[in-house]
Amino acid sequence: MNWIEDNNCLTKTLKFKNFIEAWAFMSKVAIVAEKMNHHPEWSNVYNTVSIKLTTHDEGNTITAKDRELATKIDELI
After folding, report:
1. Judging by beta carbons within 10 Å of its beta carbon (0-12, 13-18, 19+), is residue 5 exposed, middle or buried?
2. What tens digit of pLDDT does each residue of 23-70 get?
3. Strands, sheet with 9-15, edge to edge from the N-terminal-most edge strand
4. Among 5, 17, 33, 44, which one is least packed by beta carbons within 10 Å?
């Protein structure tokens, strides 16, 4: 599933087998995001993870940092 550009954000919703798999995925993303010092807005409800990427300090717009993090997230899926 591709990222959707909407309202100056990249968004993606992912479904996993269960809560544990969803949480494990989020943990992997958290490590990457922390290393990049670029953090997603996201939520987790049971097996569904919703992700929103935007750069707040650039006026809430999509930047190269968002695209780079999106690519790295895709590599973890």
Report:
1. exposed
2. 999 999 999 999 999 999 999 999 999 999 999 888 888 999 999 999
3. 4-6, 9-15, 48-53, 41-45
4. 17
Extract the tokens encoding 17. Answer: 């087998």
Residue 9 neighbours by CB under 8 Å, 6+ apart: 52, 53, 54, 60, 62, 66
Pair 61, 8: CB distance under 8 Å: yes
Number of domains in the chain: 1
Dihedral over alpha carbons 67, 72, 74, 75 (to 10 degrees): 150
Show the domain range for 59: 4-76
